[in-house]
Amino acid sequence: LNYLNVLTELSRSLLGKMTLVQVLVGIFLYVNCLMIFTFLNKAVFREDTRYILFAQTLFVDSAVMVLTDVLMILSLYQYRIHMIPCIILCTISSTFTICTPLILVAMCLERYVAICMPLRHADISTSRNRCFGFLFIWGISSIVPLFTLIAYLVVVPSAALFTYALCSAELMLGEEWLAQTRAIIFQILFLFMIIIIVFTYIKIMIAARAASSENKKSTKKSLRTVILHAFQLFLCIVRFLTPYIEMPFWKVDFLVFHNVRFSNFIVFIIAPRCLSPLIYGLRDEKFFLFLKHNAVYGLTAFCQLYSMKGK
Question: In 133-264, which ranges are E strands?
């Protein structure tokens, strides 16, 4: 009887946490969809590199949120899926997750060019250069996931690919050398990203001191934006360490594993991805004006539709 009571209490606890996570994910996806609609609805945003990178961040963050949430739900309910779709989902999720900090670095570089090289900004921020930049970002984002996928396919027995298992990124990190190599590549990658962000911060700070009173406000705002991106990058770096934090609990204690995973999900997945809408959706006056209009218009249209159904 005591065992059943404990099991019931654990189920309620997990259900309550899962409900909280779903509410947060729903709010996040609603805000992101509204911002993506605002971006697509105005040509002035679709022609600006800054807002194009922002829209790319919204898309990638939404995809990461959905994939991670689905994997967590499957893990919570102990639902086993086929290994082939599992490793595909994990590879795609890992690619999107790496893409986010790379876009943050690109945003910092864009601010650096806009503030420190304003006369060359228009020549650098062309559609052709943007395409090359996006190809470079997605190419770099795919290196680690493809390496992990290929290495896993080499070491795993072929029969294991046709089994069913609880889908998790830890499945592909069973070999110690693979997990360590993956971690080393991440460390090198993020070291370069940190160097670039520190470089842009120093350059923009120097430009802020030398700027005239008219440009000082814009420069200082860009400086704060780079600081916020640096904080986002820090959270993203910690996010890549979470599988290594969760792995010791994976085969030891089910409840502790899920408690750690819930905490990591909220702190290192939801929190940093809420900063992008804050940085560009609320702090940017031009974008916020259109965003507010679309939000009010959408709410008004929904109320009118609901009242018509009531009649």
Answer: 164-166
